[in-house]
Structure formats: structure tokens, C-alpha cells
Amino acid sequence: MKERIVIVGGGVAAHECAFALRRLGHEGPVELVGAETEVPYDRTLLSKDQLAGEDAGACVALSERPAYADAGIDVRLGVRAVRLPAGESRVELSDGDELAFDRLVVCTGGRPVMPEALVAPGALALREGADLPRVHDALARVRHLVIIGGGFIGGEVASAAVKRYAPVTLVEAANAPLAPVLGDDVAGRLAEMHRAAGVELVCGTPVRGVRRERDGLGVVLSDGRTLWADAVLVGVGMTPNVEWLEGSGVELDDGVVTDSACRTARPDVLAAGDCARWEHPGYGARLRVEHWDVAMRHGEAVAAAALGSEEPFAPLPYFWSDQHETKLQWVGHAPAWDRVDLSEDDEPGFVARYFDSERLAGVLTVGRPRACAAARRELQSAGVAQEAMSR
């Protein structure tokens, strides 16, 4: 209980880990090292409430700075971990300093994927608080916004933009936004929701590149067309921030690989959050989930593991997205399915139930919060996962 625990990362997993260590009775030093200059904040608001509002506002801290001091948590901000030497219990930092530890918890999250062909002066991404003012200002002055990528960030930015009366074209390489994840039928309904709100969709046509033009940006499509824009946002995925762990003795494979109790191949290193790929005992597979609810619970679990708990981390995956005044909610785990049942009734929104060999694997609800709650209970009764947090 006197060991020095260093947490690397500044997101919700790191925040929850730090405070959970104190709740669980850890009396030794706790140090949190974050690459951003803000204490951990609610990242979900960036592409939702803050982007849609008239004023971007400051990041909403999960706990104010004095709360860390009151809990005896030493916080160092604006500093990145750059190297973990193999066989040594010290982590090297970007400012030239290093920290010794008894336990290291890696919660370094990820960063937006930015293919070289899409890099151009003025091309935007939205992942961190520092990105928000640039995107918010673009929406305030934009004559035509092109969003590359129809995932959740792309959909949320499109929703905020049209709400502020900005013309938006959403470009998606697949047949419809989220089609690779949800299937063509469900994605088709989401596409109609975008169109009804005033978003122009260009689907089934990948982007070849973005180039700077005299009065804006040109988005070059694979079919030879070029879309003019005075602002471009790229939202084509996220990659985990784990390169600094190469050669450390920690296994890397699309993230930091851990067992079901958050432990890596090194006994003194654990991992949680968006950067962690862990063994889920209920599903019998390694999962890396890039969503808030799982990261929050992962932070609590890794704190217990750092103090010796053997309890497996086996959550029921859950996430949500707010688009065009409608809440999209997903619960479950369905990397593959052989049947999708779509609700056919007169109520607003819809429910899609995903089955794998007649077993309910996941449920998407659009504008149906009660249906989501019922789906959570139904999936929980199967016993493959711990109860999901309600939101």
C-alpha cells in the first residue's frame, strides 16, 4: 500500500484510476502525467454540446485541480512519456525528466488517423480540447464544410454544423455512414436521418487527397470529382498512442495487450482505456473499445488490479452518440452477425437487434432510450459481461 504508482495519460481512464486508488485505500505516492495542459476533462462534450453551442467554452474538468491535491495526487501536465526502458522501473518524459515507479499504469489513449494524402494546411481534426476552438471557429464562418469520414465524430460534427446553418457535405468511402459496422440496412436509415437534417452525403467514393487552393480547399474524390470547401474536417479513425513502449517488454498489437485483469507482459506495468487491448473472458476475445463508458470503468478496474485484485474486467460494451437531436445508443459486442432485425412500428426512431447464430449479440437504438435499457438487461442476463453503466 506504500508503492509508488505512476499513471501516464490524461483522459477519463487515468482520472478514474487515480481517484479509485485512493478510494481503495492506497497510501503510497500517486503521480499522473498528462500530455495536455488541461486536467482530465469530459472529452465527449467536444463534438456534442460544446461544438453545437454558440461559445466553445473551456474544457469541462472531471475534477478541478484542487481535488487532486486534496487526494494527494501529484499532477504533471504538458509532458509526454517518451520511453520505457526494458527491465527498468522508470519512465522517461519529454521534458528530459524521468519518474521511478513500482507500478506503471498506461492510459495514453489515442490520436486521430491522418493519412498523408489528407494532410493540407487548414485540414482539421477533433480529438483534444486544443482542437475545439479551431473547429468551432470554422463552423462560425464556413461557407461549405466537407467532412471526410462518416463515423461517430463525423456524424456529430455534421449535426453541429447544420444546426448552425453551415452547408455540409459528408464524404464516406462505404455505401453509407457506419455501414461497415452496422450493415447497409441500418446505415441506410442513418443516411436518411442525415439527409433529412440537410447534410449532403457522398458515399461509396473514397477521397484521394486534399489540396490547398487559392480560395479554399479542394477535396479530390476517387471518381475524379473535386469538392470545394473552405473548411475540411478529417474523421477517419483513431490510432492508439503506444509507440513509446516499443522495446519495453510490453506486448503491442493494435494497442497495449493485457490479460483480463489489465496486466501486461511486464508484471510492473498495467494498461486501461482507449490504448488497451484486453482479454474479455465473457467473449473469449481481445477487445479494444474507443468509447467513454468502457474507458471510465476500465480506469476503476486497473486501479484495483494495480493493488493486487484478480477480478477480470468484463464490461458490457456501451456507447452513445448525439446526432440531429437524436440519441444513438449501442449495447453489446457484435463483431460479426448473421441476422439483423429492424423494428417495424410507428414510433419515432428505430431499434436494430444483431444476432450471431441465433444469439443476441448487440442492439442499436436510435431515439429509443427505453429500448436501450431493456436491451442492456436482456444482454446482461446472458451472463457474459458485468452490468453496463447507465447514462
Describe what this molecule looks like in 3D:
Strand 4 (81-83) and strand 5 form a beta hairpin. The relative contact order is 0.13. The mean pLDDT is 95. The two termini are 33 Å apart. This protein has 391 residues and is α/β, with parallel strands linked by helices. Helix 1 (12-23) packs parallel to helix 8 (292-306). The strands form seven sheets. A five-stranded parallel sheet has the order 3-2-1-7-19. The chain has a five-stranded parallel sheet with strand order 9-16-10-11-12, with helices on one face. The protein folds into three domains: 5-111 and 239-306, FAD/NAD(P)-binding domain, CATH 3.50.50; 114-236, FAD/NAD(P)-binding domain (3-Layer(bba) Sandwich), CATH 3.50.50; 318-380, Enolase-like, domain 1 (2-Layer Sandwich), CATH 3.30.390.30. It has helices at residues 12-23, 49-52, 65-70, 132-141, 152-163, 179-182, 184-197, 292-306, 369-380, and strands at residues 5-8, 30-34, 73-77, 81-83, 90-93, 98-100, 103-106, 110-112, 123-124, 145-148, 168-172, 200-203, 207-213, 216-221, 226-229, 231-234, 238-240, 256-258, 269-271, 276-280, 285-287, 318-323, 326-332, 339-342, 350-356, 359-366.
